[in-house]
Design a protein that fits this description.
alpha+beta, Multidrug-efflux Transporter Regulator, Chain: A, Domain 2, 434 Repressor (Amino-terminal Domain)
Length: about 270
C-alpha cells in the first residue's frame, strides 16, 4: 500500500482490493457510488473503504447487472434504494449505531475489547457505531451476545406489552442486504416471534449460535440452512423446521424469489 493511503482501518478493503475480488474495474465501483447504489466509508485521507457487509452488497449488484441484466434503476428497485443517501435506512442505521455504542459504554467496554469478543475488527465496529457501515444479522447477533443482550434490543420497543399487534404496528429491523425482520410479539417472556422476509440471494452473512430452540414455518419461497457447517436443509413453502439454537447456523435464500417465513425462538435469546 502506498504512503498516501495511510489511515486505513482494519477490516476494510481499498478500491483496488475490492475491484480485484469482484472482478470489476475501480471506475465501475466509483460509478456505482456516483449513481447512489453504495456509500463506502472514507479513511482519514478520504480514501474509499469497503467493509465486509458492503462487499456482499456489491456482489449482489454485480449479480443483478451481469446475470439478471438489470439497469441501474432496476437494481435500485431490487435493493429498495437502501444504500442511497438520505433514505429511511440511513436513519435506521444511525439508530442502530448509536444504540450499540450506548450498550458498549454501559458495560464499560472499550471498542477494541468489544470487537475482539464479537470476533470482528475494531475498525468495522467503529464504522458501525459511526453509521458508516451496516452489520449483517450474524454480526448483530454476535454483538448482542457480547453486550449480554439480544436482537430484540435493536428494535424500538414500546414501554408496555402488546397482546394484539396490527400489521402497521409491527417493529421492523432491516439489514443492508435487505433482510426484513418484523416483530410479531411484544412483551413475551418465553418466546420471540418474527416474520422474516429474505430477498433473493441474501441471508445471514455468517453463522451464529445462542441458547434455546428455534422453529421455522415457510410461507413462501426457499431458505437454505446449514447447521454446524455439516447438515444442509432446503426449506420450501409449507415446510416446518426446528433445531437447537446452540448449533452454529447460517441461512441463505438461493432462489430468485423472496422467502417469507415465521421464525420463533424460545426463550427469546436471538
Amino acid at each position: 500500500m502506498n504512503s498516501g493511503a495511510k489511515g486505513f482501518r482494519a477490516g476494510f478493503l481499498t478500491v483496488g482490493q475490492t475491484a480485484r475480488i469482484l472482478g470489476v474495474s475501480a471506475s465501475t465501483l466509483r460509478l456505482w457510488e456516483n449513481v447512489g447504489l453504495v456509500s463506502p466509508a472514507r479513511s482519514t485521507g478520504r480514501y474509499r473503504l469497503y467493509d465486509p457487509d458492503l462487499l456482499d452488497v456489491l456482489k449482489r449488484i454485480k449479480y443483478l447487472r451481469d446475470v439478471k441484466k438489470l439497469s441501474v434503476p432496476g437494481i435500485k428497485q431490487i435493493l429498495g434504494n437502501r444504500t442511497g443517501p438520505g433514505n429511511a435506512n440511513t436513519d435506521h442505521k444511525r439508530e442502530i449505531g448509536e444504540r450499540l455504542r450506548r450498550m458498549r459504554r454501559n458495560l464499560n467496554l472499550g471498542i477494541a475489547e468489544a470487537a475482539r469478543q464479537a470476533g470482528i475488527s475494531t475498525g468495522f465496529l467503529s464504522a458501525i457505531e459511526l453509521s458508516k457501515a451496516n452489520a449483517s444479522i450474524a454480526t448483530l447477533q454476535r454483538l448482542a451476545a457480547t453486550y449480554n443482550s439480544t436482537i430484540l434490543d435493536f428494535f424500538e420497543m414500546p414501554r408496555h406489552r402488546m397482546r394484539l399487534i396490527r400489521p402497521d404496528q409491527r417493529r421492523l429491523l432491516k439489514t443492508d442486504s435487505g433482510v426484513r425482520m418484523e416483530l410479531l410479539s411484544v412483551g413475551t417472556k418465553m418466546l420471540e416471534c418474527m416474520l422474516f422476509r429474505v430477498p433473493p440471494h441474501s441471508g445471514s452473512d455468517g453463522a451464529y449460535s445462542h441458547a434455546g430452540e428455534e422453529f421455522i414455518y415457510m410461507i413462501a419461497g426457499e431458505l437454505e440452512i446449514w447447521l454446524d457447517e455439516q447438515d444442509r436443509y432446503l426449506l420450501r413453502k409449507g415446510d416446518s423446521f426446528w433445531f437447537e439454537s446452540n448449533l452454529g447456523h447460517r441461512w441463505f435464500n438461493p432462489s430468485d424469489k423472496e422467502a417469507v417465513l415465521i421464525w420463533i425462538n424460545t426463550p427469546p435469546t436471538f
